[in-house]
Design goal:
Helices cover 66% and strands 2% of the residues. The chain has 14 helices and 3 strands. It has a single domain (90-369), classed as Orthogonal Bundle (MetI-like fold). The longest helix has 35 residues, at 335-369. The protein has 370 residues and is mainly alpha-helical.
């Protein structure tokens, strides 16, 4: 705003705040919820649905729920959720058939693995300390889960189950399949016909069948081709099946990023005289992976949820142990609570991955602008 100073008779510019109707919560509501007649109608319908759904849901989840007790009889008079089920059955739901007295071991092992994964997600931790943490953490995880040393009894993988099994299958499947998928994507775009053909056949073959078929082949059919007396651990076969399946889908995601990268980037790298691997590792892959971060994280989330399919080969993941917890006829009326508890845990993991994806996009986007 400009006005004339009466003493000096010179124009003076003074900053003036915008009207309250253009900033703040009121302006946001007017712009995003009531900017037009269709938007107003949709907003009113959404508010009506929320008013009809949220209060009864909160009443069932919290206000009328039962949280204490030692058996199903504690929930007979309640109209809300029976969270007593989780209190009584939580150890089986979380750890499955793992030896009851030794369940502190998978609890610590899972915390160690999740801490390593979370630490690896933040660039400030990248470096030698993180590499040292992995060199210590992974053997510690294996020692805690298997045992057989330091006075801890051996626990075979057949007894692994619940949340630790889900986390292991998902984490190893994602970490190992990612570089494999990148190699497949590069192979499919290779100028060498043999490499391109093999990569294409593998990707199309794996993507053409469901994960259940891959797990079934790994568990039932693959042992038939082994020499007599040679066996491979069931958990290892399931893990390999998940890796091979996930790698094929990640390969197509990465290939999309490679094709979306402007051709000028390839030509600039060639003009600098960079070798194929220098061009790929320093210029092409970093930019390509940045473009497909949402798709990659979407595949990671899908892999985490797909671990529930290992039930077909006799492994009890977290969803299966939650469902098995209500096999007791006395607890069967409260099966919804078991699935709700499993849904909350799955949502916590998947939402965390989604938020990390957004954090990574913002960080890499800021670096790109600089």
């Amino acid at each position: 705003m400009t006005y004339i100073d009466q003493t000096t008779e010179e124009p003076v510019v003074r900053a003036v705040s915008p009207p309250s109707s253009q900033i703040g919560p009121v302006a946001w509501v007017r712009k995003n919820l009531f900017s037009s007649i269709p938007n107003t109608l949709l907003t009113l319908v959404a508010l009506f649905l929320l008013w009809k759904l949220i209060p009864p849901l909160l009443d069932w989840l919290l206000f009328s729920a039962t949280f204490s007790g030692s058996g199903p009889e504690a929930c007979k008079a309640t109209t809300g959720a029976c969270w007593t089920l989780v209190g009584v059955k939580h150890r089986f739901m979380l750890f499955g058939f793992y030896t009851y007295e030794e369940q502190w071991r998978p609890a610590i092992a899972t915390i160690v693995l999740l801490a390593l994964i979370c630490g690896s997600g933040y660039p400030r931790f990248w470096g030698k300390p993180l590499a040292l943490a992995w060199l210590i953490g992974l053997p510690l995880f294996c020692v805690l889960m298997w045992g057989g040393v330091l006075g801890m009894p051996m626990v075979e993988t057949d007894k692994w189950g619940g949340l630790p099994l889900t986390v292991v299958l998902a984490a190893v499947g994602i970490v190992v399949s990612f570089p494999f998928g990148v190699v497949l994507a590069l192979g499919r775009r290779s100028t060498l016909p043999a490499i391109r053909t093999v990569s294409t056949l593998y990707i199309e073959l794996i993507r053409g069948v469901p994960l259940i078929s891959v797990l079934f082949m790994a568990s039932v059919m693959f042992p038939l081709f082994l020499p007599e007396g040679v066996t491979i651990n069931k958990l290892l076969r399931a893990q390999v099946g998940i890796i091979l399946f996930t790698a094929a889908y990640q390969a197509e995601t990465v290939r999309g990023g490679l094709q979306a990268l402007p051709k000028g980037q390839y030509e600039a790298a060639d003009a600098l005289g960079l070798s194929y691997w220098q061009k790929t590792l320093l210029i092409v892959l970093p930019q390509s992976l940045k473009l497909v971060i949402p798709s990659l994280v979407n595949q990671f989330i899908s892999t985490f949820k797909d671990t529930s399919l290992v039930l077909i080969i006799g492994l009890y993941d977290f969803l299966t142990t939650s469902r098995t917890a209500v096999a007791d006829p006395a607890w069967q009326p409260f099966y919804v609570e078991a699935y709700a508890f499993a849904a909350i845990v799955y949502f916590a993991f998947c939402f965390s991955m989604s938020r990390y994806s957004q954090f990574l996009e913002r960080r890499l986007g800021a670096q790109g602008r600089r």
